[in-house]
Automatic annotation (TrEMBL):
Species per Swiss-Prot/TrEMBL record: Acer negundo (Box elder)
Biological role stated in the UniProt entry: Small GTPase required for proper localization of RNA polymerase II and III (RNAPII and RNAPIII). May act at an RNAP assembly step prior to nuclear import.
Protein name, entry field: GPN-loop GTPase 2
Alphabetic keyword roster: GTP-binding, Hydrolase, Nucleotide-binding
SUPFAM superfamilies for this protein: P-loop containing nucleoside triphosphate hydrolases (SSF52540)
Origin organism lineage: Eukaryota, Viridiplantae, Streptophyta, Embryophyta, Tracheophyta
Family membership: Belongs to the GPN-loop GTPase family.
Domain of life: Eukaryota
Length: 295
């Protein structure tokens, strides 16, 4: 069997920082010695700050779809993803030369319905994972400023949970722009409360709503806690340590840390039960500073 290729599918609502993430993450991974290819699968993203290895606009453009079929942006994006699924052979052929020696970053659209309602994206990724032996982690970005509003934070939790259940892939939820978390207001609780996602019942007392809505908040929080699936890690894309910690977490979720290791069950068990010391920081910090200054 061919060796697996590894990567990330970067998803999240509009404004959560997906394209900035792909740009920063690709530069960070390059600095620590990985050969990276960024694949743009957002047909509405026509200003890319990174060098694009594969661009969906070579297959279909949102502006063309909207004009030809009299569709709005949302309907146009659904059409584009449906078209991509029907022409997945095009994407597969573009990726085949890359999977041999590249780490892949897939930059997806921000329309959240594509990831918890429609099946197009899931079907495309499932096909690629099987055909090209890809091991991908879904990196779901949520703007951290939502934590300052209990209602918005609960909505983000529900979105994260729905996406995890729908996609059924290795999954990491990320509070992005953590350096700006209090830009829209002071938090009611410590940051750990929002990342660990426990004891959510406290949120009902911090909403400016009637008793009826507090009851609804309580019921929604109980649904989230019943599944016990959602938690968050944090990210400041301009901070070396923050990015490095996230990379470690993603590498554990998709198995990258075990790449090249003998599949012996004995060896695997020895590594799995102990801390994995990975040299993510072998490059001088001045190189990372030059990356940060490029923003």
């Amino acid at each position: 069997m061919a060796s697996p290729a590894f990567g990330q599918m970067v998803i999240g609502p509009p404004g959560s920082g997906k394209t900035t993430y792909c740009n920063g993450m690709s530069q960070f991974l390059s600095l620590i010695g990985r050969k990276v290819a960024v694949i743009n699968l957002d047909p509405a993203n026509d200003t890319l700050p990174y060098e694009c290895a594969v661009n969906i606009e070579d297959l279909i453009k949102l502006s063309d779809v909207m004009g030809e079929h009299s569709l709005g942006p949302n309907g146009g994006l659904v059409y584009c993803m449906d078209y991509l699924e029907k022409n997945v052979d095009w994407l597969e052929s573009k990726l085949k030369p890359l999977v041999k020696d590249h780490y892949l970053l897939f930059d997806f659209p921000g329309q959240v319905e594509l990831f918890f309602l429609h099946t197009n994206v899931r079907n495309v990724i499932t096909r690629l994972m099987k055909k090209l032996h890809l091991r991908l982690t879904a990196v779901h970005l949520v703007d951290s400023h939502l934590c300052s509003d209990p209602g918005k934070y609960i909505s983000a939790l529900l979105l994260s949970l729905s996406t995890m259940l729908h996609l059924e892939f290795p999954h990491v939820n990320v509070l992005s722009k953590i350096d700006l978390i209090e830009s829209c207001g002071k938090l009611d609780f410590n940051l750990d409360f929002y990342t660990d996602v426990q004891n959510l019942s406290y949120l009902q007392y911090h909403e400016d709503h009637s008793a009826k809505y507090r009851k609804l908040t309580k019921e929604l929080c109980e649904v989230i806690e019943t599944y016990s699936l959602v938690n968050f890690t944090t990210l400041d894309i301009q901070d070396k340590e923050s990015v490095g910690n996230l990379v470690k977490l993603i590498d554990k979720s998709n198995g990258y840390i075990f790449a090249g290791i003998s599949p012996s069950a004995v060896e695997f068990s020895k590594i799995a039960v102990s801390d994995v010391h990975w040299d993510y920081y072998r490059y001088p910090s001045r190189l990372f500073k030059s990356y940060v200054s490029s923003y």
